[in-house]
């Protein structure tokens, strides 16, 4: 019987992962809502099974609700973060947190009703609702901490295992599910009287689940998402329709999202394209550098010579930037006198050299109407060393831009361990 239970344990884990990853993989076709809904609807069942449903396996007493489904949910949240970014993954984290609190609140309010028994022996069990309510509150709080913790740990591990995504995935699972087992078992012991022996069996089961999910994640990451080419059995006319639409879309896209003054891509286009550029480069195992430039004392130019002359200076800066950047790089006007460059396949050292070329070129070739050189301050950050999301990396670069201005302007600042250039 223990062997059969273990076999069912593995089958349930494989089935859960396969279904959820299928929804995640086809999220652009099916809609991300299907994945998020499937992720959230099982939380009550997971908590209930963790409280009352246990089976015996060769290494102890375990609950599939906690060891398979809750562990799987946490690993799915991390996968969603890897596929998308922090702005997307925070939706299920906060949604699950608020939704489960709402469930508990409704259950509490229901106890104030005077229910009518429609059939003998079918009266509502308020003791059960109260017990599950407290477990739901505690489980929801742990899920919130687990979800944030697993993402932060994944980011931190990137400093030591830059391109070892699968290893980081596994370590995060081991660490956060150990934390969760300690936290949730305490509640089970207090509220449900679960014996201490179940702690070790549950912990071993969660570690086994992490191994299973990591193996399946590796198969998906290497064999499906990176290497597979989607086949299509649709009529060839449908394919040509798609190609025609895509061609027209890209043609329209190339003519929109431009800053009227400088001709560079504008901020809206940056917010649309930059996250995708970073994700794709990291998926290919390549670093991406973000460079942010700000013209020094530009307000003085406008004040002394007028905004029309200031606009001419901005156009001259944009023109010089275009002569330095490579074909694969993208330059955007971030706002006012600030510019942002996204440089794929560029590590931090290369990014600093590129930024210094940009700084030197502008200082040596752009001047105000009275002949004084125009200088820029530059901040540089690199994914995945400074984070894997565009917002995170841009924030790091912006902080270094501020440092560059603080230490005297007309210089380039990168990570603290890298010397200031300029």
- Which structural class best describes the helix and strand composition? alpha+beta
* Order of SSEs: HHHHEEHHHHHHHEHHEEHEHE
Number of helices: 15
- The number of domains: 2
Strand order of the largest sheet: 4-5-3-6-7
DSSP strand tally? 7
Oligomer: single chain
Backbone CA Rg? 27 Å
Q: What percent of residues are in strands?
A: 5-15%
The best one-word shape is elongated
What gap, in angstroms, lies between the N and C termini? 71 Å
Mean pLDDT over the residues: 84
Architecture blueprint of SSEs:
Elements lengths: L1 H24 L1 H4 L1 H9 L2 H10 L2 E3 L2 E3 L1 H20 L2 H25 L15 H32 L7 H28 L4 H30 L9 H19 L12 H17 L4 E8 L2 H8 L1 H18 L5 E6 L2 E7 L3 H18 L10 E8 L6 H17 L5 E2 L9
Parallel strand pairs: 6-7
Antiparallel strand pairs: 1-2, 3-5, 3-6, 4-5
Helix pairs in contact: 1-5, 1-9, 4-5, 4-7, 5-6, 5-7, 5-9, 6-7, 7-8, 8-9, 12-13, 13-14
């Amino acid at each position: 019987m223990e062997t059969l239970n273990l076999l069912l344990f593995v089958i349930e884990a494989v089935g859960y992962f396969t279904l959820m990853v299928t929804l995640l993989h086809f999220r652009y076709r099916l809609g991300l809502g299907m994945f998020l809904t499937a992720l959230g609807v099982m939380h009550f069942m997971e908590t209930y099974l963790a409280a009352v449903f246990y089976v015996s396996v060769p290494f102890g007493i375990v609950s599939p609700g906690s060891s398979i489904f809750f562990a799987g949910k946490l690993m799915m949240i991390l996968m969603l973060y890897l596929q998308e970014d922090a702005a997307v993954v925070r939706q299920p984290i906060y949604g699950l947190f608020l939704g489960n609190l709402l469930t508990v609140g409704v259950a509490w309010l229901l106890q104030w009703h005077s229910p009518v028994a429609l059939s003998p022996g079918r009266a509502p069990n308020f003791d059960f609702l109260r017990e599950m309510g407290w477990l739901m509150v505690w489980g929801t709080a742990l899920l919130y901490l687990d979800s944030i913790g697993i993402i932060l740990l994944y980011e931190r591990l990137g400093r030591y295992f830059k391109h070892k995504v699968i290893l980081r995935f596994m370590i995060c699972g081991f660490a956060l599910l150990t934390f969760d087992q300690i936290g949730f078992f305490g509640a089970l012991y207090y509220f449900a009287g679960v014996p201490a022996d179940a702690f070790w069996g549950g912990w071993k089961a969660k570690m086994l689940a992490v191994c299973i999910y990591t193996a399946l994640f590796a198969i998906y990451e290497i064999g499906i998402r990176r290497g597979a080419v989607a086949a299509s059995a649709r009529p060839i006319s449908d394919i040509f329709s798609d190609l025609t639409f895509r061609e027209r879309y890209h043609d329209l896209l190339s003519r929109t999202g431009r800053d009227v003054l400088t001709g560079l891509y504008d901020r809206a286009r940056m917010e649309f394209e930059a996250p995708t550029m970073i994700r794709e480069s990291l998926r290919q195992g390549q670093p991406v550098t973000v460079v942010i430039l700000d013209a020094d004392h530009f307000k003085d130019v406008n004040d002394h010579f007028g905004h029309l002359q200031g606009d001419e200076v901005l156009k001259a800066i944009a023109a010089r930037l275009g002569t330095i950047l490579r074909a694969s790089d993208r330059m955007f006007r971030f706002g006012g006198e600030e510019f942002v460059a996204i440089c794929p396949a560029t590590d931090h050292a290369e990014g600093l050299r590129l930024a210094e070329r940009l700084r030197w070129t502008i200082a040596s070739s752009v001047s105000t109407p009275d002949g004084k050189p125009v200088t820029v301050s530059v901040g540089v950050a690199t994914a995945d060393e400074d984070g894997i999301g565009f917002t995170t990396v841009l924030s790091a670069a912006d902080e270094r831009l501020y440092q560059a201005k603080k230490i005297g302007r007309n210089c380039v600042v990168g990570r603290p361990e890298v010397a200031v250039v300029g």
